[in-house]
């Protein structure tokens, strides 16, 4: 699951394209299937979104939640791909993008009535 935060006035006009760019990166780097998009977009009022100095109102936070198992090199490749594609396709400067990957053990995920360690029909690899 991916959660995206930003200032409402800047995030709303680009949210569909932003979701597409993020999912393209997830597919190309992690091999996620087309139908495995789980994005939550949280547009915030300016007064509800505090961010570091030197950033613009385009500042966007992307939290990627995933089951553990991806190699550090794969995670770094995903982050770098996101920075590159967000800049080239949406003109989001890297200074205005913050990306965090939060890993949880498969037994800490619940979906389709089971835990992640019980799922044996995933259409993508976790250990990449």
From TrEMBL:
Annotated InterPro entries: Tauto_MSAD, Tautomerase/MIF_sf
Protein name from the UniProt record: Tautomerase family protein
Species name: Halomonas salipaludis
């Amino acid at each position: 699951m991916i959660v995206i935060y930003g200032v409402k006035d800047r995030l709303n006009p680009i949210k569909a394209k932003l979701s597409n760019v993020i999912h393209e990166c997830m597919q190309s780097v992690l091999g996620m299937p087309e139908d495995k998009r789980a994005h939550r977009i949280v547009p915030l009022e300016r007064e509800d979104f505090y961010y570091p100095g030197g950033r613009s109102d385009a500042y966007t936070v992307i939290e990627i939640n995933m089951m553990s198992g991806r190699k550090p090199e794969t995670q770094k490749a995903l982050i770098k791909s996101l920075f590159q594609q967000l800049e080239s396709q949406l003109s989001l400067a890297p200074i205005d993008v913050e990306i965090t990957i939060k890993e949880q053990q498969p037994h800490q995920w619940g979906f389709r009535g089971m835990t992640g360690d019980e799922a044996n029909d995933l259409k993508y690899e976790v250990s990449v």
